Amino acid sequence: MERLDKIIASQGVGTRSEVRKMIWSGKVTVDGEVERRIDVKLDPAAHNITVNGSCLSYRKHLYIMMNKPRGVVSASNDSHVKTVIDILPPRLRRSGLFPVGRLDKDTEGLLIITDDGDFAHSVTSPGKKVYKTYHAYLDDVVSDDDMDRLRSGIVIDGGEKCLPAQVAELDRTDFIYEIKICEGKYHQVKRMAQAVGRRVLRLERVAVGGLVLDSALERGESRELSGEEMDILARNV
Ligand code: URA
User: Ligand 1 within 6 A of 68 CB?
Assistant: First the structure.
């Protein structure tokens, strides 16, 4: 059971104070009757709520796939720099959204955004072994010995030992490597590359577990995850 103003505001219809005004001015109905009490408690799944004549299709949580562009930070708010939340289209905005794990400002690709903390924890927790797949564009080739060091769990600067990574060479001429890791240490892929004497020139995340970045999504675009994609992730966690 939740307060009516909170239920409506959580669906991205407006801010909490905008929603209160809507309720007070008779723009909200519950089961066909105008409801002017902002604090009445309801089970949103059990009632038919309308706002300005439109039915509120209540969803407890939102799950979004973004193709993150360079230049935006993976945070919910930042007074100086544009965040991934700032670039969501208005129809996907609602309170409480945050990125699931962090991509660096200059990293591109698949980012999941949600307001479901338990879900986020299950995707990011190393214990769940949800592998994140990156395409790393390096400045030179990685030797077979160094590939083995990465595969067996390399020690990065500061003495931190990484869990074993899955590493494959995608393009020997352009030094493009696929790197799969199931943890999210700060700048992890860049520091792993550094530990084998290489520099990451460009980094793109292409998958999280079995969820693959939709190639139809342009950089900076977002959309809700489909039921099928949610099932894929559920199987991973
Ligand atoms: N590893 C990095 O170095 N940067 C990222 O953004 C993600 C993984």
Answer: no
